[in-house]
Amino acid sequence: MIEQANILALSGGVGGAKLALGLARSLSAKQLTIVANTADDFCHLGFPVSPDLDTVMYTLAGLSNVEQGWGVANETWQFMDAMSALGGETWFRLGDRDLATHTRRRQYFEQGLSLEQVTAKLCQALGVEQQLIPMTNDAVATQVLTEQGWLDFQDYFVGQQCQPPISEIRFNGMSSATPSDAFEMAIAAEPKAIIICPSNPFVSVDPILKIPSVLPKLKRCRAPIIAVSPIVNGMAIKGPTANMMQGLEMPVSVSGVASYYSDIIDGLVIDRSDSDRAAEIETMGIKVKITDTVMHSEQDKINLAEQCLQFTEQLYSSTA
Length: 320
Ligand code: FO1
What we know:
Shape: globular
CATH class: Alpha Beta
Largest sheet: 7 strands, parallel
CATH superfamily: CofD-like domains
Structural class: alpha/beta
Bound molecules: ligand FO1
Number of strands: 14
Order of helices and strands: EHEEEHHHHEEEHEHEHHEEEHHEHEH
């Protein structure tokens, strides 16, 4: 176990949750704070759904459906089957167990709790000891511009399987959003490192960084900011990152990721298969760590987490 002061990880769903699990195994629970994107959140069938928060929460609780990438393992689908029989919506699937999470979230909201308070309650009930925080308690909603016009994020992502090319992304509600209290406190506590997980830079990480005041505050921290590239060998590990980069006319490579994050990060972790790009990235003033970034097994997640922690230690000492 690496003894270190607090590590602040910024995460989307699947890729972020994998690294978060590796970090959780490499650090004591008190040392790790994870801030998750909430711009994918929406209300479905009357339930408040927080996909990225839940993916990280289920992963840390050991409950996640690893093959599917979202939801709970050993899920049953009786609610969905019954909805289908009644002619209800089934394009976005809420499993029976997952439904309990959304029901509890809705009940807590009805009692007047904020999203960060609800998340803390759910995490406590599921035995998650690390601090998992929503980026904001305010409603922020991603929309993407396609040839069909502006689409709500889940309509594009799940409903249309990320097929329509995207030319623009916007986050409704962002200009008046404020960071959640726990996020503010985590930044004010001067973390030892800030790790941007290998999540989609445009729809998972950007919403966190674009909350007014967040980026300047993160940059004022003494902590190095590193990112793990979600692009490996010109491809996204999962999801639409590569397609989005193409649509936004960016090179689909680790260099494209580096250039996108160039005003933000001190270091980028890239996969061995991209090692020939390291020199180019370093010319952008970004330090590079080359390692294995594709996470299949739990040991892969731990190894990557430890490489990230060592990298941030190096960067921290080099600025001492
Ligand atoms: N993703 C899907 O591809 N299909 C689904 O039916 C689906 C349902 C779902 C229910 C709850 C939840 O928390 C997540 C769910 N996801 C589903 C995943 C999800 O919406 C996306 O992976 C994220 O928003 C992108 O990070």
